[in-house]
């Protein structure tokens, strides 16, 4: 198998078996990056010399790409903004320090939209350079899709992991809110920000979560996940144990914005639901809770209020270096009355607490990750509206690539579970992945 086709666990097995040389693997990834970068523009910084010699460590020999809002002590962290051009932080973000301790090689920094908001960077969709890769974790999604790295970090405040994963045809996983410490990750809105992953298979994402899930005193929102046993050096497959032991029960939810979903995406979701039924899953069309319609407004209020507090002083100091979308968000947030912000936080908390009752009897929700395939052009990263409710709830979310539109661009599905039920969601995702018989494909 060509090295670029190796997923995270595939590469680890080969490295541990001695059939894959770490230096040769790193060089193959660099060669892949060099060949793609002139048209992909996934990286804000690529470290050609990066290598870690840590035999036996859980991620030894694995190149990992890091979104450019996540601090790295030996590489620039620009946050997608000219304000921070060339800035090198004094310390790693906690999740990066953890990756290094696990033996991973920090391969480079991937392009982010400006401060993980709407102003796009130069990254293009690897399946068609005339289309967006999604955002704000644009470079991370594109780098995994193009076969440059098997694992990349992203963040999600609205739809910045799930949407680009769907647009680029890879697995995207956003863990529950607070599952991965965000210390050293530039905030957009602390009550909504999550750290997530891009991989080529569900088991890869599960392995990454098992290693990186943690709590931190420096992250006031952190909350450790219920522990789960993960792979050993001897046998990654058996100890991951992601098999549900039975077919899943899925709540098919179209949401109140179903009319905004393109026909091809609608057809793919319903066809996938039928394929899962044929494989033994129980798939029940479930009414979208009317109370959940408030989640879009709740998220918008929290985002604007918190982002204005973070970026307002920046806008005041460097007015010409802040994009129009971010300037507009700051102005919107400054106009939010304090009682409205407090009420939004309270409503967010209450709806999260009630999510388990909504999903009673189901393992996960089956829905769409985006209105359709990646839109044409690079001026926008697409609509995050079908991710916002689950992000606001802090629920774990997973996107699986399932098919392609007539344009040749990827289409996927989104699976979501109750807050802190990450392992259950990953088990459901792996079951669905096997039932669909998904073949990992790469753009030419």
Provide tags for this entry.
alpha/beta; 11 strands; globular
Describe the overall structure.
The protein is of the alpha/beta class and 444 residues long. The protein has a single domain, classed as Alpha-Beta Complex (Amidase signature (AS) enzymes). The chain is built from 13 helices and 11 strands. It has an 11-stranded mixed sheet with strand order 1-3-2-4-6-5-10-11-9-7-8, with helices on both faces. Strand 7, helix 8 and strand 8 form a beta-alpha-beta unit. Helix 6 packs antiparallel against helix 13 and helix 9 crosses helix 11. The chain starts with 7 loop residues before the first helix and ends in an 8-residue tail after the last helix. The mean pLDDT is 94.
List the helices and strands and how they pair.
Layout: H1 8-17, H2 22-40, E1 43-46, E2 63-67, H3 94-101, E3 105-110, H4 138-145, E4 151-156, H5 162-168, E5 171-174, E6 194-199, H6 202-212, H7 236-240, E7 249-252, H8 263-278, E8 282-285, H9 294-317, H10 324-334, H11 338-358, E9 364-367, H12 388-393, E10 397-404, E11 410-416, H13 422-436
Parallel strand pairs: 2-3, 2-4, 7-8, 7-9
Antiparallel strand pairs: 1-3, 4-6, 5-6, 5-10, 9-11, 10-11
Helix pairs in contact: 6-13, 9-10, 9-11
């Amino acid at each position: 198998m060509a090295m670029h086709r190796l997923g995270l666990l595939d590469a680890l097995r080969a490295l541990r078996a001695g059939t894959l040389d770490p230096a040769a693997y790193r060089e193959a990834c660099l060669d892949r990056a060099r060949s793609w970068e002139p048209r992909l523009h996934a990286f804000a910084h690529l470290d050609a010399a990066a290598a870690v010699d840590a035999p036996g460590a859980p991620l030894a020999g694995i190149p990992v790409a890091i979104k450019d809002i996540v601090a790295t002590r030996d590489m620039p962290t620009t946050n997608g903004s000219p304000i921070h051009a060339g800035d090198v932080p004094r310390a790693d973000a906690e999740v990066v320090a953890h990756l290094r301790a696990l033996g991973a090689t920090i391969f480079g920094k991937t392009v982010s939209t400006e401060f993980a908001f709407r102003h796009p960077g130069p990254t293009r969709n690897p399946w068609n350079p005339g289309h967006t890769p999604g955002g704000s974790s644009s470079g991370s999604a594109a780098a995994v899709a193009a076969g440059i790295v098997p694992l990349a970090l992203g963040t999600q405040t609205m739809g910045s992991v799930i949407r680009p994963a769907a647009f680029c045809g890879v697995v995207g996983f956003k863990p529950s809110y607070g599952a991965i410490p965000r210390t050293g990750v530039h905030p957009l809105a602390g009550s909504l920000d999550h750290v997530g992953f891009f991989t080529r298979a569900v088991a890869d994402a599960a392995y990454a979560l098992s290693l990186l899930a943690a709590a931190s005193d420096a992250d006031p929102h952190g909350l450790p996940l219920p522990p789960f046993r993960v792979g050993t050096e001897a046998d990654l497959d058996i100890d991951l144990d992601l098999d549900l032991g039975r077919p899943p029960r899925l709540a098919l939810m179209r949401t109140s914005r179903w009319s905004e979903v393109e026909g091809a995406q609608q057809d793919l979701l319903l066809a996938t639901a039928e394929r899962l039924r044929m494989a033994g899953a129980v798939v029940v069309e479930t009414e979208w809770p009317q109370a959940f319609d408030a989640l879009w407004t709740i998220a918008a209020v929290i985002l604007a209020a918190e982002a204005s507090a973070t970026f307002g002083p920046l806008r005041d100091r460097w007015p010409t270096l802040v994009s129009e979308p971010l300037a507009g968000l700051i102005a919107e947030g400054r106009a939010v009355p304090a009682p409205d912000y407090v009420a939004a936080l309270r409503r967010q908390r209450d709806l999260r607490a009630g999510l388990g009752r909504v999903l009673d009897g189901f393992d996960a929700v089956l829905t769409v990750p985006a209105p359709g395939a990646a839109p044409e052009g690079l001026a926008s990263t697409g609509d995050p509206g079908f991710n916002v409710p689950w992000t606001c709830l802090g629920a774990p979310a997973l996107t699986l690539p399932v098919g392609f539109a007539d344009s040749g661009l990827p289409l996927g599905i989104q699976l979501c579970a109750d807050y802190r039920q990450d392992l259950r969601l990953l088990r459901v995702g792996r079951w669905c992945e096997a039932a669909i018989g998904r073949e990992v494909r790469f753009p030419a």
